[in-house]
Every structure is written in C-alpha cells, then in structure tokens.
## 1
Amino acid sequence: MSSSNQKIKLYIETKHPKYFADVLNVDINRLLVNELSKFEYLEWTMFQSFESTSLIAIRKILQDRSITPLGYVMLVDVNRTQFDTNQPYSEYLTLEGLQKAAKFGATGIGPHFSLVTKEWVEKVHANNLITHPYTFRSEPFFMNKTPFSSFKEMVTTFIEIGVDGIFTEDLVQTREILSEYQNNGIRNVIMALTIVAIVIIAIVTVASVVTACVFKRRKQGASTEHLTKGSNGKFYGVDGDGESDQARLVSNKQ
C-alpha cells in the first residue's frame, strides 16, 4: 500500500510457464492468480508473458471468477520463436499478428524497443491495443548498442512515436525527461494560443481602422453633396465640385 492508502499497481511477468508445466508439473499461472487473490490484488495487476498460452490461461481463470485485471500484454522478443507455440515473435509486428493477439484477449504488446516504429504503433492503436516497449537502460554499456546519442534522446524519441509507456531501469531520469517533455508541450501550446490571440487582435484592430476610415470618407463626401433639379424635372446628386452623378439619381414624384 502507498502512503495515501491506495494500492500500487503491479505489472507481473510469468517466466517460462510451459517449462514448469511440462517438466515440473507445476501450474504457475494458477499459483500466481491464487496468490494475488489472497491480497485482493487481481484487479490491480497487469499480466505479461512471452508465452501467449500463459496469458490465455490466466484470462480464462479470471473470467471464471468474473474478475477483470488491468490488462494482458504479449511480450515480443527479437529474432526468436515462442517457446510454447514455436511461432516467430515477428508475427506480432504484422497487422494479422496484432489482430490475432487482440482475438485471444491481449490488451497490449510489449516489444523490444528496437522493433518499434511509428507505423507499427499506429497499427497497434488501430486495433485498440497499447504498447510498452522494453528495456530502457541509461548505462553507457547499453546506450552504445543503440542508435541514440543520449538516454534523453532515446526516451523522447519513443514518446514522440506514440508509445503508451516504457520499461526502464532508470526511473528517476526517465520521469525527469517525461516531465520536461510535458512541460515543454504545455509551454508550446500556451505560446501557440498567444500567437493566435495576437493575430486575432491585429485583424480586429485593422478591420476597425479600415471601417472607421471608410465611414469617415463617406460622411465627408455626403456633407459636400446636394441635390439639383435637372431640365427633365428629376433630381441629381451633385458633388462639391459641381459634377453631376447620374448613378445617384433620385426620382422626383412631386
């Protein structure tokens, strides 16, 4: 429990459940569910696994108990096959694979960060799934294996790609980067709104000045005009310089 008496959410991975079942005859999926149930923590847990059959099994157990957890995330490894199904993990990088994951009950995909692209994230979201890539490490040993010049650049890049969360081993620095990014975003929005407001004020001001000038000219022109009666008995507007303007004809009904 946290200091505010709110439960801390859990994100638990099942490790090699098929091995435990086949070799040791142990159902770690059910053991995990039963243990969490003792503490009434099932609704506060998100389950993840590199084995789809584990997620399917846990989901079935919880459905039988009418319990809905935070979610089920299918983990995706690089250049490997799934231990339980012998299917390549790369299938989840395709639209068909994402649809398959959604169909068996996954609510998200957790790929190695090197597999993530903006186009793929868009496909994930289009299938009502979330994505949490792993694992972000700030140590030079790990950073040197990435195309990024800094940990900040790495985290920021994935935020901009649109992922829903990341797994990190440097929580403090990651939170600082996220906070700075969000604050910059707020400042950019405020700046954009300020610019829009200034433009609107400028347009209104110019329009007001133009309207005032036009009105003034019309008023001045009207004050120097008078009507004169023509030889045909009709009245014409005449400017101050004495030139008749037949376009300003006024009918004489007298």
## 2
Amino acid sequence: RTNMGIPKFFRWLVRRYPMILADIKEENDVPPIDNLYLDLNGVVHNATHSNDPKKLERISKAKDFEVIWAEVVQYIDDIIHLVKPKEMIMFAVDGVAPRAKMNQQRSRRFKTAQERHELKKLADDALIEQDPELQVSDMFDVNSISPGTDFMVELNRKLDYYIQHKINTDPLYSKIKIILSGSDVPGEGEHKIMEYIREYKNSDYYHEGTRHCIYGQDADLIMLSLLSHEPNFTIIREEVKYKREQVEGIVRNEFIMTNNFQLLYLPVLRQYLDMEFKPVIEKLELEYNLERVIDDIIFFCFFVGNDFLPSLSVLDIAEASVDTLFEIYKTTL
C-alpha cells in the first residue's frame, strides 16, 4: 500500500522539505489533536501484513475472521491511544470507488491474484529457513479487502460492535463523537473523510483552530489534506524503510514496515511553500495568496499520476520532474 496514491511522492517531499516529518518516540511527541480520522483500509492492510514471520504465518493460516480482527483492533487501539483525540474519531472504510479508480483497482487486483501463488512459495521458503515447522498454508487474500466481499461485510459488523463496546468501557471513547462510514457507503475512505471536513467547514459550529489528524499511508492524503486548506493538519503514518536490492540482475524495491509511527506536519509544509513561493510572486508584483499557490501545486502534481490518473510518460518524480514543474511554475507566472 505504500505505493498507492502518488508513486515516490512521499519520499521526494520529505527529502525536499525534511522538517515536515518527525518520529514519534513517546506519547508526548504527539501534539494535541481534536479530530482523528482513520482510513481503515490502510489499518486493515497494515494489521494483516508483517515483517515478523510468526505473525505473518498466524494471520495467513487464519480460517476465520477473529484472528485478523484481533490484529485490526490492536492496531486501531494503538493509534487512538497514541493520538488521544479530544473531540471526534471518524472510522472510514473504502466503499465502492468512482469508475476511474475501479479501472486501476481491477488491473491491480488481477495482478495481485496472479502474483499470489508466487508470493506464497517465497513466504514458505523464507519461513522454513527460519523455522522448519513454520509454513504458510494459505496466505490471506488481500483482494478480500474490497467492498462487497464477505470479509468487508463482517468488518462493518465488527466495527459497529467494537465502537459500541468502547463507548461503554473506554473513557477515551465515551467523551467524544464517533462516526463510522462503512464499506456500504460509496466512496473511498479518504474522500469520505474530506467530504466530512468540507461539511464541517460550512457548518455553524466550525472552529478555525480545529486540530485535525488523519491516519493513512497513501501519499495522496498529503494532497487532500493540503486541499482542505485547514491550517492545523497532521498525518500519522507508520514508518516505512526502503530497501533496494538486486537479485539475478533484477532490481527490486522492498518496503519494510517498522511498527514505528511518524507525524507529517502540514503546517510546516505550508510554511515551506510560503517561504519558497511568496518572494517570487511578490517580486513579480502579483497579488500573493498561499491558498491559490497550493491549489496550483496540487493541480500540476496530477501530471505525475495518482489513484485516478496515469502519469505522463515524460514525467517521473525520481528524475526530478516535480522540481522541474516547480521551476517552470515560478518562471511562467
């Protein structure tokens, strides 16, 4: 899932603006948060994938939902008790996606199913090397994390029960507003979250100082969060380490989840963008508006691709395409 959204964008962004990202080493490293939004497809994906062979083997052998659900619940609890939101938690599960995304999902899932047998063999070999008694007999099918599957129907039911149980037993939940948007509600999780934020901004009870935090690994969450134009927005995500290796002449990029959380500070990113573009625009004696600049940046970043649009063949983030777009933008204003 680390490849979803805008490929390579997160790594490029952190390299260009390094102070936007901070490791969470203890609870005090998390700033006060009012509203927490959980993209639950990312939670389920991370909870069912592991670098620990024994945990992977346990999940893969699961014949019922309970083993997987236990991992999902633990992951949700870890995030919520780390962030400790003061006003609201929103659980958003991917519903039926727009048609443009469906086309990408279909091709991606055909590929996933095709690779599944190969991955099973690789996992078996890796586990047997570490412990001859371990073997992945039937790997968990990630394609079941899709709207309309039995897995997602059961997930909706369990989430509803879980929230009711937590409201009655956990003081952290009982004092705040809880929203659940399940897979039976159309739209992707992150888009349903943004729809809620837009409605909140237009409501009578909107407070400009509201501190938002969204959980998710997808790089397009950065764009969506910027597009909200909310001044206090952070993204909590699991740290991913990138490993590049060459096997039999083939270069492979491996993404390793570390079980450590990081915070990406959008206010700091906004300051970076302000410092970079304000002098250029004011020098041209044009009216400067940071929000308009952010909209422009998001627009031309579409050209490097996202979940709905394929990238232009001539643009590749790894080849400094976004840097070039930034410079063109500055010189053509």
## 3
Amino acid sequence: MCLFLDFPELVRGIITLNSRGFPSSLKIETLTELVEKKRLFHRFQHPYTIHVSLDLSHDGEHRPTVQQWRREKGIGVGGFGRVFLEVLEIRQTSEAGQPATYKFRAVKEISKSGLTDQTYKRELKAIVNFSQEKFNHLFVESYGWFHTDDTVFIAMEYFKNGDLGKHLGRLGKPLPVLETQQIAVQILEGLYFMHSEGFTDRNLTVRNVWYEMTGVKFSN
C-alpha cells in the first residue's frame, strides 16, 4: 500500500510535536550551541597544553582521552591575536626504528584586554560557523577553543605552506594566470558566504589567506 502524506499537515505535525517538547530530527542547533560544543577542557603544564575528553569506546564505555600539545613557535598574526604552532606526538619511535607520528595544529591567542565580550564571542561564532562541513573547502577548520581569565585560545587547522603572502615571497615571481584566477574565485566565493552568513572580514590580506596546493582557505 502506498501512503501519500499531505505536506502542510506533516509540517504542522512536526511543529506541534516540538512545541510539546518531543525531539525532532529536523531541529537545528543554534550557533551558540555549536560554539559551546567546541569548548575544550584544558590545563597548562609548560610547554604543554593538556586536554582531557571522555570518548565512547567500542564496548559502550566512556573512557578519558588525554592529549598533550607541545608549543613549538609563533607562526603569524591573525585578527585580534597571535598564532602559534603546536605538536601532538601520537606514537613514539619504536624499538624497531619506526619513526614517531605527529599531528599539528595552529592555536590563535586572543587577549581579552581591551575587547568587549561581544567582540571575542563574535570571533568565536565566526570561526565555529565556518568550520561546518559545508564550508570546509573555503575556510580554516576549528578543532575547538578554551580560555583563561584574560585570553581565549582557538585551535585550528595548520597549513605547512603558510599564508599566501609567504608563498608569493618564496615564489619570487607572479603566479600563473590560471592559479591566480582560481585563487580569486575562491576568495570571492568565501566573501560571498561570509556576507550571506552575516559576517564581514575587515582584515583581508594575503597574511590571513592560507595556501595549499589545492587552493586557499580563509582564516577568520
């Protein structure tokens, strides 16, 4: 038997269920909720930032996972703050001589001094918003954030090639026409999405556009 549903009635039914407190698969998280879900628990033990999370194991138990990120060096300046490279050693060098395995991340530090709560919270919202999967091809992904009384820290995707300005400096000559066109299109597309989501970039330079072989990404 084929059952045909009246679409307006179906929508009204979903709205009614939600108004009664029933869960709906169509419920969309607010941006504020997304920001809170990205918050990382942390403590500092120089030169490490240590994160602890409870992860669900294969047997259904929640077990703590500890990550110790070691700060390496400063790698740039972003909107409202400085950016540092941090390294996580996933596997140590084995007795058989297998090399250690590492993960890398960039961490932006934003000083709260001189900034209103609204300013840095809007920065967080922008970064988390554009870390959604639908924007991954254009914007730097955020892995989470944490804070102290005077500083906000935002962990982000790291690009070993650096920003577009550094790439142009290494190249020492103009970009090929085709690559220039590709980068221009990506930047315009990124600006379009930013404006359509209610955000603006007041500091668009080659220093906050990150370069990789497949193109460029915006850093908020």
